[in-house]
Amino acid sequence: MARSFTLSPTLSPSVRKSVSLIYHFAERESKARYKRSLLGWFWSFMNPLTTVVVYSFVFGVVYNAEPPETTNGNAENFGLYLFTGLIVWSLFTGVVNGSMGWLIGVSDLRKKIYFPTETALLGGAAANSVQTLLEAAVLIAIMLVLANLSWTVVFLPVALVLALLFGLGIGFIVSVFNARYRDVQYLVGILLNVAFFTVPIVFTEELLNRPEVPDLARTLITWNPPSLFVEIARDATYFLEVPQWNRLLAAAAWGIVTFSIGWVYFRDQSMAISEEP
Q: What is the CA radius of gyration of the chain?
């Protein structure tokens, strides 16, 4: 049974039930993540810190990669440049991949009782978001120590929310197909691995501006949804700049429209997939 907690009396019983279920699935996913772990959520801080240190050494020392210049020159570190993009990318891919597993994880339960199946995916996404918020907190703390922090950091949660909505929209759709054909999870994994190299995470925008890069490739890499989310996050926390308004509008459109389409499709198919073995 889902743990009960107080909700506003203005909410309808169905909404209160759905919120309670989302909380329950989020709690279950969080506990399962570090089950039998002595240090628990401590690893959520250690993982991003280790990532920054390793990437800083590999790209900054071994490959001597030149990090993009920051506004005040205080945080010019390729590891931080990479980490900022990876936070957004990991949230997106974690929700897409997780959605398929979260739906399969409640397959037996949804055959026994009725409940809004989408709450399992929303709960899993909520748990995944907590991990992302911890990583973002580590990034902000490092930027604060390096005196590379500005009010523009308010756009970081905007980028994360839009990436979450976009990932959930896709997750709703692929989870339905994966419930019927298990090959989908492997195909999605391959596609995401390929898509990683269409997002400026391990390379800078200067690379795209080279004459040998075709205009079509430059446009696709600059304006694909994950790239938009990553660049908004980088502008906010690394470059300390206000993101371009056209990028913000395009990112908002991708996130909201994709989530809406995925939600409607999932709700339409929810009864049918409950009968899937």
A: 20
